[in-house]
Design brief:
Layout lengths: L5 E6 L3 H10 L5 E7 L3 H11 L2 E2 L3 H6 L5 E4 L6 H10 L3 E5 L6 H14 L3 E4 L6 H11 L6 E11 L20 H17 L2 E9 L10 E8 L4 E7 L1 E13 L2 E6 L3 E6 L6 E3 L6 H13 L9 H20 L3 E2 H6 L4
Parallel strand pairs: 1-2, 1-4, 2-3, 4-5, 5-6, 7-10
Antiparallel strand pairs: 7-11, 8-9, 8-15, 9-10, 11-12, 12-13, 13-14
Helix pairs in contact: 4-5, 5-9, 7-9
Length: 337
């Protein structure tokens, strides 16, 4: 007899809630049973689209004994409030990155879930892309030799994508701007591939978008292994673009959105293509979440890992503001960051 799907509720009806809900429909391990957001129109539209119940309040969802877990896509600044309430109600949480705005809030959130004995899984689907999985395996097998350097770029055109007063444009609702919103994805990948980051030097600019948030950022990072990485993130570019190059003493991997993955071995001529099948990263992480709820797995990115990637971003925000190199330990030692 097949196991029943995990019954979940979606909260926060933004565009990403639909992305997750679409992925739920591609997996048989979860079922959306209810939804809630403060806008009655948005929750009714979501309920109609995905065949679930529109709850009149978040408390209604938390009281429902049939709801086992929450898919949380609320704005970042209410992650702690909403996830802690779910934990106290005994509901597991799949939380879209970042875990919170501050390390202190991230720790409080992770602690609430840990003490309640519920699963906390943080959505970092990009590390699951097949080209990054290939790189990780090759690194672990020693094919790169010593890692010495890495460079990444994650860019999107966000001009006109949101209304001028949207929270993504406001520093108090999205500290670090593009660094926190999309740069953190490639911070996660750089830590995944190259290893823990010790220090950050950063610069930011606001060039195109409204509000008071950076839409361009550059971070230079020092890894524990000695390698140096550089990451550029932009909301002000002409189009969507992704790049991740990993340089080792014996081999280098080159990845771009348009050219795919290539590998160059030392003294072996030009880089050759590496075939990588496009995989369903979001469905994969939701499948893993369901397995975690059923006690069959552990989250690949749990609260502790999510706190570390957030600490790198917070170090970048401080570095750009104060014009100095900032160690991650300084951020982790603060009760305000």
């Amino acid at each position: 007899m097949s196991e029943s799907p995990v019954r979940v509720a979606s909260i926060g009806m933004g565009w990403w809630s639909d992305v997750l809900a679409d992925a739920v429909q591609r997996t048989r391990k979860l079922k959306i049973a209810a939804c809630f957001t403060r806008s009655a129109g948005k929750r009714e539209a979501f309920a109609k689209k995905y065949g679930c119940r529109a709850a009149s309040s978040y408390e209604e969802i938390l009281r429902d004994p049939e709801i086992e877990a929450v898919l949380n896509t609320t704005p970042n600044h209410v992650h702690l409030e909403t996830a802690r309430a779910a934990a106290e109600a005994g509901k597991h949480t799949f939380l879209d990155k970042p875990i919170a705005h501050t390390v202190a809030d991230g720790r409080a959130l992770a602690k609430a879930c840990r003490e309640a004995g519920v699963v906390l899984s943080v959505g970092y689907q990009r590390r699951r892309e097949s080209h990054f999985r290939w790189m990780k395996k090759a690194i672990e097998e020693g094919k790169f030799g010593r890692l010495v350097q890495a460079e990444g770029n994650i860019s999107r055109d966000r001009e006109g994508q949101f209304e001028p007063g949207h929270w993504r444009y406001q520093a108090d609702a999205m500290p670090g701007g593009v660094m926190l919103q999309i740069g953190i994805h490639y911070i996660d990948i750089l830590e995944y591939l190259v290893g823990p980051i010790q220090a950050v030097s950063a610069r930011t600019a606001q060039l195109v978008l409204p509000g008071d948030n950076p839409d361009v950022a550059n971070l230079i990072m020092e890894h524990e292994c000695g390698a140096i990485s550089n990451l550029t993130a932009s909301y002000a570019s002409a189009s969507e673009y992704y790049l991740m190059n990993i340089y080792g003493k014996e081999a280098t991997a080159y990845y771009t959105l348009f050219d795919g993955l290539r590998i160059l071995h030392r003294k072996q001529g030009p880089p050759r293509p590496v075939p990588c099948t496009k995989n369903d990263t979001i469905a994969e992480e939701l499948d893993e979440f369901a397995d975690c709820v059923r006690g069959k797995a552990k989250p690949e990115v749990d609260g502790e890992k999510a706190i570390l990637s957030l600490a790198v971003i917070r170090a970048g925000v401080r570095s750009a503001k104060e014009g100095r190199r900032v160690e991650i330990a300084e951020i982790l030692a603060s009760d305000k960051e």
